[in-house]
Amino acid sequence: MATAMAATAAERAVLEEEFRWLLHDEVHAVLRQLQDILKEASLRFTLPGSGTEGPAKQENYILGTCGTDQVKGVLTLQGDALSQADVNLKMPRNNQLLHFAFREDKQWKLQQIQDARNHVSQAIYLLTNRDESYQFRTGAEVLKLMDAVMLQLTRARNRLTTPATLTLPEIAASGLTRMFAPALPSDLLVNVYVNLNKLCLTVYQLHALQPNSTKNFRPAGGAVLHSPGAMFEWGAQRLEVGHVHKVECVIPWLNDALVFFTVSLQLCQQLKDKISVFSSYWSYRS
Fold this sequence. Notes:
single chain, 6-stranded antiparallel sheet, 10 strands, alpha+beta
């Protein structure tokens, strides 16, 4: 019995020493690693120009689709803003070619990118709020910090992977359709959003439903991408989506950011798992 108790005491002493090392050394090593990764992610979002304090550089992306070539164009991204959109639309019925581009004095803020960047900045703040001399006292303290960082990283990732669902009236009221010169025809709606590492442009062609129409009018709800046949009311008119054209372009630095988020979340979870192993031991032995 005495030998068993001595073995238990020795085992506990070794584990306590390992846990102290984990709190004093490994936690800070992981925090440094996370800071380095997230600073790289943050740089992807700022995309500085010639000087570190200068405006974000402009990047041109060619819109592409694996289906028809009804829509072609170029989007110009400047940080978290769409600074130019130059689009050609071939009308399905008569093959008429429409060209529309942003007015020179206009930019369209991409809220998803702005929000993701803000969440990354908040995660970095949480990590740098404790310097190298700070001593973590308990595993619970580390778990609380990791949970807070993971919450910001998950929110950042979700803003890029989960586009907002909008109703057609919300798209019509968004103001994006008023960004173009010449003005868009009244039977067109345009939406732009981020989905994973892609910037997506959707053009909806509409037609008015006649007051004596026999169609059962059912307003469409919110969706990332509405389908032909979706109906909505705008002003005094009832409208239906006749054609939908979706084109997109890959933004390489958004892909980098998503990879950084995934790696960072894995590091946080690994540290949490190590802490939990020790916590489970103390609970089991008590």
